[in-house]
Amino acid sequence: MTNYIKSGIMGLCVADALGVPVEFMSRSSLKNDPVVGMRAYGTYNQPAGTWSDDTSMTLCLLDSLAGGLDYDDIMKKFRQWFDAGAYTPYEEVFDVGTATRKAINRYSTGKPARECGGKNEHDNGNGSLMRILPLLFYLQSRFGTELNREAFDIIHNVSSLTHAHQRSLIACGIYISIASAITAATELKTAIEQGTEKAMQYYRNQSEFTQEMQHYKRLESNGFAQLPEAEIKSSGYVVDTLEAALWCLLNTGNYRDCVLKAVNLGEDTDTVAAVAGGLAGLYYGYESIPSEWLDTIAKRDYILTLCENFADI
Ligand SMILES: [Mg+2]
Predict the structure, then answer these.
(1) Average model confidence (pLDDT) for the chain?
(2) What is the DSSP annotation of 136-172?
(3) Of 100, 237, 239, 269, whose CB neighbour count within 10 A is largest?
(4) Which domains does the chain show, CATH number per domain?
(5) Cα of 201 from ligand 1 centre, angstroms
(6) Closest CA to 95 of 167, 134, 42
(7) Model confidence pTM above 0.85
């Protein structure tokens, strides 16, 4: 378990840090000047190895789940991050999504944690997908690798803290289902197919989700991995981000190539890479993450300690 936690969390964090300096850059600009390693400065003028909100919110969830599942505590930790710079590299928040900011503000004005996430169609940014991975470790400690109804409900509740629309809930459900299939030690392509299919099967049988299923049709289609890059969008829309991340996993054979491909798709570089990197880390393992990248990561020992604390419990 310790290894999976370290591999997934650091896989996500390193990929986030690779994307931070070029966030919002277009794909065509990156074609001329592709990212090949850890860069400094750029979009947010941060030193190399600086990770962003994707990792910060992931660490909030990881740290909270170490004490058990408590939605209120997760929101409290999000607040500590947003208001006071906890769980950041340099006690400073330089990136936050709109839906996340609004949800934390609602919590600050006294709304119950479970009612804070936006429920509108335009609230479907990738802000809950990018931070959902730690839930895998909690769910496996409770239910094993098969996700039952209660497990899906918990995934949806944790997404809903900031992103409560069904489309975001499904994205998180598919992601955790794939992550779970990866830890069941199948080959990557098979794990992605099986994980996707299991989640889809679950959602098809839940009436409140059926009309949302059309948005995930491409993921299920046989030719998804073979789609040309031009048909893969790397925006902050949750469906685009999930598709782009999985497409990168399906079209590369190691951690390095996967996360660089994700970053070089452009636009929401850090989050597409973080979402891909979490699964790539899980599959290829911590040792597959280039050490020259790991060496730049801000507060690496702190992150590893949070991973170990979780594993101990
Ligand atoms: Mg970010």
Answers:
(1) 96
(2) HHHHHHHHTTS--HHHHHHHHHHHHTTB-SHHHHHHH
(3) 269
(4) 2-312 (1.10.4080.10)
(5) 31
(6) 42
(7) yes
| Ligand 1 centroid – CA 2 distance (Å) | 25
The Å distance, Cα 20 to ligand 1 centre, comes to 7
pLDDT tens column, 135-159: 999 999 999 888 999 999 999 999 9
SS3 content of the chain, % helix, strand, coil (to 5): 65, 0, 30
What's the gap in Å between 53 CA and the centre of ligand 1?
5
pLDDT of residue 2: 65
Residue 149 alpha carbon to ligand 1 centre in Å: 31
Element (H, E) at 5: helix 2-19
User: What average pLDDT does range 9-20 have in this prediction?
Assistant: 98
Residue 33: exposed, middle, or buried by beta-carbon count in 10 A (0-12, 13-18, 19+)?
exposed
What stretches of the chain adopt beta strand conformation (E)?
A: none
